[in-house]
Amino acid sequence: MKMKGLRQIKPYVAGAQPQDKKMIKINTNENAFPPSPGVLQALASFDGQVLRRYSALENNALRDKLAENLGVNRDQIIVGNGSDDILALAFLSFLNSDDAVLFPDITYGFYKVWADLFRIPFEEVPLSDEFEIVTTDYINSINGGIVIANPNAPTGIFKDLSEVEAIVAANQDVVVIIDEAYIAFGGESALPLLEQYDNVFITRTFSKDAALAGLRVGYGIGSPKLISVINAVKNSYNPYSVDLIAEALATAAVEDYQYYERVNAEISETRDWFSAELRALGFEVLPSATNFVLTKPAGIAAESLFEFLQSKQIYVRYFGDKGRLSDYLRISIGTQDEMAKVIQVIGDLFV
Ligand code: PMP
After folding, report:
1. Which class does domain 52-255 fall in?
2. How many angstroms separate the CA atoms of 32 and 26, rounded?
3. Does residue 205 have its Cβ closer than 6 Å to ligand 1?
4. What does pTM read for this prediction?
5. C-alpha 49 to ligand 1 mean position (Å)
6. Alpha-carbon gap, residue 301 to 320, rounded angstroms
7. CATH label, 24-35+258-348, candidates 3.40.50.720, 3.30.70.330, 3.65.10.10, 3.90.1150.10
8. ipTM confidence score
């Protein structure tokens, strides 16, 4: 029997999550290090009795801790079930214009998926030949909003704050969403813009810099006006999206920020070492301000290298036949030992 009302969409193919612990899994930009000692302690001492009740609707404990750490007020923060949740809510809450939302043609793949899902008109703006976001393309354009990942993904390239400000300043009649999922590894945050502009909304995640991808916590920072709009949408859709365990552990992570500063600095160092090693093999490596690199192999096709690495239990990201990206692999930065092993395995191909 034919059924009415079923939504027909092509499912988004998220990064694969093979669970084999022996594998060097460097395909979805997780942190190379374990969560901080304080987070593990908070997990061990969590009182399971409290799970009888719903989680805190407003998540004030976590929002207060974040506000203190970021130097903003509680009413400038919303927390959610990963930054995917916050970004999807931002699309639902801020991009209801008839004009097209602009985002780069190579960026986080979910933007297009959400625009399609929520029936938001959009336009993908090409990157430059060097894979850079061209500032002027976002200035003096009629649009229904702008979404930019800074640093961008999967290129890893960051935009100077002055250029982000130029985009925000030129588009004060719409919301500019800045996705800062990778900001802990390089680049310049748009946080200072909050003092002057109420149309900027920044998203962040605990998945990358706080080594908590499996916990699912992300947050958004914006003017009280934007936060009250997105809060209303969140509370109309999934009010208790951050569970009690997630809130306790994420709060402990913010308290342990010095641990994370240390391990993330180490990841950035390993990234620079790994990039230099790849370049020495003749590979093109885009300048990365993140915990991954986008690289075009030399002497072997990207897809073949992807398959070869997989046969050696090393799992990186190949995007398939996607225009310019089909010549590239995205490789997350693991520990120094893991990345040395990757270099050794690739090097062996060419001896
Ligand atoms: N933005 C970007 C640019 C990302 O790469 C990711 C992770 N794949 C996310 C947002 C979402 O991360 P999470 O939902 O784990 O916070």
Report:
1. alpha beta
2. 9
3. yes
4. 0.97
5. 32
6. 12
7. 3.90.1150.10
8. 0.99
